[in-house]
Design brief:
Blueprint lengths: L2 H16 L3 H13 L1 H32 L1 H24 L14 H9 L2 H14 L6 H28 L6 H30 L6
Helix pairs in contact: 1-6, 1-7, 2-3, 2-7, 2-8, 3-4, 3-5, 3-6, 3-7, 4-8
Amino acid sequence: MTSATFIAMTLFALGMSLSPGPVNLLVLASGVQHGFGRSLPLVSGATVGFTLLLILTGAGLSSVLTQYPLLLHVLALAGAGFIGYIGYTLATCAPNQATPSQARPRFMQGFWLQWLNPKAWIACASGVALFANPEATDSLLAFVIIYFFVCYLSLAAWALLGAQAAGVLDSERRQRVFNLMLAALLIATAAYMLYLQLRDVMPAPGR
């Protein structure tokens, strides 16, 4: 692998990992409510979940979904429901205190959210198309390793940002407004995902 390829892979992974999305918003909220250390299981789960999805995409999972597009619709609908539920949980949690321990984001929540996250599927499919060589596994392996570390560090940065922001959100009103803002973004994302899926499967008017 050349240095130019390494840089290209790293920049691609960094751009996709740092850009806002449902997982990043959840990690940010967890950092605010629970602190950096307690958010690391969520960060780890999301990283492992994405890495496994990337490996399976490189192994041919994307071709299976191309042959059976209904599966992708089901995943997207489940993802919309899951993201909407997380938004609702965040909107209804008590301000200025952590959510109950059973409601705290866990490793498996981060893991499954990546599999139900359209952004993760797009990142995997486009990344494999750009950097994976069907005739050699070395390029895919290198891309997976790079993406694993970049993804983990990027999500950890969102958790750290949330933990640092907790010092500013030092009143019940401020934290309540912050929770509602993040919840609104998550619910809006879920609603848009639902709209896209229903638009694709519903027949056009007049047909």
